[in-house]
Design a protein that fits this description.
Largest sheet: 5 strands, mixed
Radius of gyration: 15 Å
Distance between the termini: 48 Å
Helix content: 25-40%
Strand order of the largest sheet: 5-4-3-8-9
CATH topology: Glutaredoxin
Structural class: alpha/beta
């Protein structure tokens, strides 16, 4: 069975799909509100409070100020609901905004859904993936199958490079 049949991966230079999702406090976030103002890093992850997802979210939270200095906002997105996000955030002191895509529609638009065969059942999971999007809404980097160790630092370097190019350095 082809487990990637529902995957449509996004590429550099494509417009990022815009969306509106609730955060851990059940406040709606409209991605289009960033357009023309801020760059964005969207990191999609499989599940709240699992070891790799926790490491990744903590790393991004620890470096959030550095991203902010480059005019870049960070958002974590998973299929967990808002209450799980709030528990996850509070338990680990996360500062990045966590968005809830319970239906998996935004995950599908970004090509991060993955069907896995387990015990004779197909289970929908999320491929750990990160997208760097400029303030015009164009994808600058699309990284699929991310390894969480050192990932936030790697993404920071990529953001720093493309922000430098945009400024003409």
């Amino acid at each position: 069975m082809n487990t990637h049949s529902d995957i449509h991966k996004l590429q550099l230079g494509q417009p990022a799909p815009v969306f509106t999702l609730p955060d851990a406090d059940m406040e709606m976030f409209d991605f289009s509100s960033l357009l023309g103002k801020k760059h964005a890093v969207l990191f999609f992850y499989p599940k709240d409070d699992t070891p790799y997802c926790t490491q990744e979210a903590i790393d991004f939270s620890d470096h959030e100020d550095e991203f902010e200095r480059l005019g870049c906002k960070i958002f974590g997105i998973s299929r967990d609901d808002c209450l799980n996000h709030a528990d996850f955030r509070d338990k680990h002191g996360l500062s990045v905004r966590l968005l809830s895509d319970v239906e998996g529609e935004i995950c599908r638009q970004y090509g991060v859904n993955h069907f896995r065969e387990k015990d004779g059942h197909r289970k929908l999971t999320v491929i750990r993936s990160t997208f760097i999007i400029d303030k015009k809404g164009i994808i600058q980097h699309a990284i699929y199958d991310v390894s969480p160790k050192g990932h936030a630092a790697q993404v920071f370097q990529l953001v720093k490079e493309f922000v430098g190019k945009k400024k003409g350095h």
